[in-house]
Amino acid sequence: MMMSLLxxxxxxxxxxxxxxPMDHVLPHALFGSEWFTNHHFMALMVFVVGIASLMYVSLRxxxxxxxxxxxxxxxxxxxxxxxxxxxxxxxxxxxxxGDLTDKYIKYIWSIFFFALFxxxxxxxxxxxxxxxxxxxxxxxxxxxxxxxxxxTAGLALISLFMMVFVGIKENGFGFIxxxxxxxxxxxxxxxxxxxxxxxxxxxxxFGLIIKSFALCVRLFANMVAGHLVLGSLIILAITAPMxxxxxxxxxxxxxSFLELFVAFLQAYIFTxxxxxxxxxxxxxxxxxxxxxxxxxxxxxPGDSIDEMLTVTGGAGGGQ
Length: 319
Prior knowledge:
Number of helices: 11
Helix content: 55-70%
Strand content: under 5%
Distance between the termini: 75 Å
């Protein structure tokens, strides 16, 4: 991104064009097309890089060996991927989805790495690379795909579909029944209860939409804000006096590393919230009641274990 802002627009001398921090955020049409923008190009880049990376990792992860050492994953890149996958499955998804983890973990991995690669590739000076090569049709090819609300809305809609799909698949009619908690009896009260049930059902549906909207806006806003701040610091480093140049350039460098951290953080948050929303519909409320039904008000889950140990210790002492 830094190189993209330092270079001028195609067809002009370097440094002669007006520098705009929004240039790296707003969509730009490529190849003379009205609909194919740099964000579409970056989405294709994410797809290609993601598939290539996963194929490379899959070939280096051992699946058959005659010795224990043969099952050790080698290579830092492959080990990093494996560590991320294990963390997402065991530390983030399994505590929420339980036995359903292995059933839906492929989607969780896919949504995480797609968002992560979209964030990371948006930090690379791809536009500057094509500009230096003289490819004017791709001089605006860079930019963060996740900085476009249309793409984050697409990811959120897929997550919304998974919320409903998993809820219906795992609970059947129980998923709809939970959204309509008002009973249809006694019959004399049905004219009153029916509008109330309809209102609750609409609110439940609206809640699903709000969850998806939160996913969409959170990722979009954080990525756009980070790029705008970084772009402003770089512009200040170019236009400010010498002392200001040094301070701004140092700030831009530090903020670039912060943006690298934010790229991982926002991909994790988007995935984590998706898992939470899916688990709300996937795990039936009857199961929650069975787990929590034996606790009195104010009791802790560990109290029953403590009482058991106390009783056992007392019996042993009596013997």
